[in-house]
Amino acid sequence: MSIACDTCVVRNRAICSVLDTDELVALNRIGRTRTISAGQTLMWEGEDSALVANVLDGVLKLSTGTEDGREQIVGIVYPADFIGRPFGARAQQTVTALTEARVCVFARGDFDAFAREHPALEHKLLQRTLTELDRARHWMLLLGRKSAMEKMASFLLEMSERLVQNGCTPDAGPLDRFTLPFGRQQIADILGLTIETVSRLLTKLKNDGVIDLPSRREVAILQRDILHHRAG
Amino acid sequence: MSIACDTCVVRNRAICSVLDTDELVALNRIGRTRTISAGQTLMWEGEDSALVANVLDGVLKLSTGTEDGREQIVGIVYPADFIGRPFGARAQQTVTALTEARVCVFARGDFDAFAREHPALEHKLLQRTLTELDRARHWMLLLGRKSAMEKMASFLLEMSERLVQNGCTPDAGPLDRFTLPFGRQQIADILGLTIETVSRLLTKLKNDGVIDLPSRREVAILQRDILHHRAG
DNA sequence: CGCGGCTTTGAGATACTTCAAGAGAGGTGG
DNA sequence: CCACCTCTCTTGAAGTATCTCAAAGCCGCG
Can you tell me whether residue A65 is helix, strand or coil? Predict the structure, then answer.
């Protein structure tokens, strides 16, 4: 039987990788592919959790905000990552596409039921969730205890590691040049800073010869060791 | 057969609650109870993850730090909570007892193997991990975007909800008076502030009549609505 | 009573924000 | 192809929340 998953670009990296063909057929039946344009929101904080999804392509952000409009980005989602809140009634974060994105969506109830019948899938999801929890807690150190420059340096280093093309190329280590899927305000919302501070820090790093900024969203790391040093 | 779990105080709230008697006997065989005195550390960040545990009694903190000694508390662990990093080689946080604590510990390898054979246990663990992840991400908003006073007010409100005696008393809602398991420096390490700022904020809240501080570690909330308002 | 650790309070320093313009980039239409 | 517009980003100057440094107060405990 031929199904969409056969040609799925994240087939071997998403949580689905633990499923055999029959199981994949069953999962495929309850899901569908959806395209989201940049800036569009897939689910809202506080809304009831109706959907979960696998990311096929693109980058999305998870964010929370205060009543008066301050925003904090709490997670960045890449291809093969899972989004949504299974086994829970409410979505706790807003999910918004930063680039055009393709996701494989499931009604939460359907997915929950399927997962409960497939322990291997739940196990994979558990592993991912544990990793995400470690990552979130590590980010709390950055938010709570690092200076603005340390935050920025840490951020650039993390991006150089995470934005590696997840394509066919064998793992080539961190990139020395990459295009951010964020504008300055979004970097500020990730680091808990203001847009002006972000701009000043980037200019300073550029003037110090640590990085180069070929265009608005491109970054080239010229002196990784120094950047590392500034990350605290 | 009589086992320790029969009289376990968290029997119905810890992840073990999904196990039947036979399973509990098996799990009991690979675990043992251990007492930790206040201030003692159970596992260290970066060390390999040898243990996992259920908390029976007491309060512990999860923390990470920078090389130069700055610390951020990233989680607080109460009775019936699970600690450690199953299915992963390294502990990502340091776990330290804040009060004298009793925990039910397992060698990580033993626990991993047991969990893989008991999907219901993994499911329960997944649910907990998802909840913890939501909590951690919510805390990121506090760390990144809230003012010192907003942080303190949010903290006091959260404590009044989480420190509810988990004993036999039916759920009685948030406490208006409680004893913190933290000193001032630890509150600072939770909120990403300095000890002096923490002290000043508490005295201000007291002078404003919003709270009372009967002793060093006791807090009484006098005007919950105002505290809520100051939490942002 | 006196000692040591924790906490409070004060005064001054500063990192980051806020407010306010100006410059640059990218897109659109003439 | 250039002029224009808008949106984002940069830069500057001033303000302020929080930190740092320093000293004194409190409290439990031997």
Answer: strand
Ranges in chain B annotated CATH 1.10.10.10: 147-230
Residues of A with CB under 8 A from a CB of B: 62, 64-68, 70-72, 74-75, 85-88, 92-93, 116, 119, 122-123, 125-127, 129-134, 136-141, 143-146, 191-192, 232
> Hey, of A94, A126, A230, which one would you mutate to test binding to chain B, going by the most B CBs within 10 A of its CB?
A126
C-beta neighbour count of A174 within 10 angstroms: 15
Residue that is written with structure tokens 């330290």 in the block: B96
| Architecture per CATH, B147-230 | Orthogonal Bundle (1.10)
Pairwise CB contact (< 8 Å): A72 & B133: no
**Per-residue pLDDT tens digits for B140-175:** 999 999 999 999 999 999 999 998 865 555 667 899
Q: What angle do CA A156, A162, A164 make, to 5 degrees?
A: 110
Predicted confidence (pLDDT) at residue A165 exceeds the cutoff of 70: no
Say which nucleotide is closest to residue B147, CA to C1' distance.
Answer: D17
The number of beta carbons lying within 10 Å of the beta carbon of residue B66 is 15
* Tens-place pLDDT, residues A73-110: 999 999 999 999 999 999 999 999 999 999 999 999 99
The CATH code of the domain at A4-141 is: 2.60.120.10
**Intervals of CATH 2.60.120.10 along chain B:** 4-141
Q: What's the CA gap between B188 and B196, in Å, rounded?
A: 9
- Spatial contact of B110 and B50, defined as CB atoms under 8 Å apart: no
